Amino acid sequence: MPHLQFEMNFPADSGEKKRFAGAVVRRFSEIMDTGTDHIGITIRTFARDDMTFGRAEEADGRIVFVNADIRVGRTREQKRRLALAVMGEIEQAWGVPQRSAYVIYTEHDGEHFQLSDRVLPSWTAGEDPLADPAAAPRKGARRPARAGGAGRAKSKGPARRRSR
Q1: What is the Rg, in whole angstroms, of the alpha carbon atoms belonging to the chain?
Q2: How far apart are the first and last CA of the chain?
Q3: Residue 59 maps to a domain
Q4: What's the confidence (pLDDT) of residue 103?
Q5: pTM of the predicted model, to two decimals?
C-alpha cells in the first residue's frame, strides 16, 4: 500500500485536495503499474514559517515535501517519472514551482504493508495486490477500474503470500 504524504506550508481547500489526490492516485497507478484502491494519500498543511527548503523558488514562499512509502521493486526510471509527475501536479494545482517541491522515497518489503484482510505481496510488474479473487472485497464493496490495465495478462512473478 503506497502511502504518499504531502506536507505544504500553505492552506488548500477540500475541493483542491480531493482533485489533487485523485490526480496523484491516477498518476501513481499508471507509472508504478499497479491498481488504485490500495493507494493512501495524506495532505498536511502547515504555517508558512513551519517549513524551510533552501533551494525553493519564490512563489509566494510555497513549499511542498512529499514522503512516498512504496514497495521495493520499482525501477529508477519509474521513481523518477513519478517524482516529476507529482511535482507537475503540485505546480498545476497550487502554482508551486517544481524547484520548490522535494520527493523522498522510502522503500519497504510488501509485508510491511498490512491491511485488515491481507498482507501485501512484494511488488511485481502489472500486478494489483487487491485483485486476488481469494481475498476479494466483501459483498457490495466496489473497486475502481484499473487505469489502462484492461485486458493485460497477469505477471508470472514470484508466488504471493497471503495473510491468514
Answers
A1: 17
A2: 18
A3: yes
A4: 97
A5: 0.71
Q: What angle do CA 119, 124, 125 make, to 5 degrees?
A: 140
60, three cell numbers: 509566494
- Asked if residue 96 belongs to a domain, the reply is yes
User: Looking up cell 504518499, which residue turns up?
Assistant: 4
* Domain of 45, in residue numbers: 3-135
What's the structural domain count of the chain?
Answer: 1
- Three-state SS for the chain is CCEEEEEECCCCCHHHHHHHHHHHHHHHHHHHCCCCCCCEEEEEECCHHHCCCCCCCCCCCCCEEEEEEEECCCCHHHHHHHHHHHHHHHHHHHCCCHHHEEEEEEEECHHHCEECCEECCCCCCCCCCCCCHHHCCCCCCCCCCCCCCCCCCCCCCCCCCCCC
Structure confidence at residue 122 (pLDDT):
64
Contact call for residues 128 and 149 (beta carbons, < 8 A)? yes
Is the confidence at residue 13, as pLDDT, over 50? yes
Q: Evaluate if residue 35 carries a pLDDT over 80.
A: yes
Q: Is position 156 within any domain?
A: no
Within a domain: 154: no
State the CATH number of the domain containing residue 36. 3.30.429.10
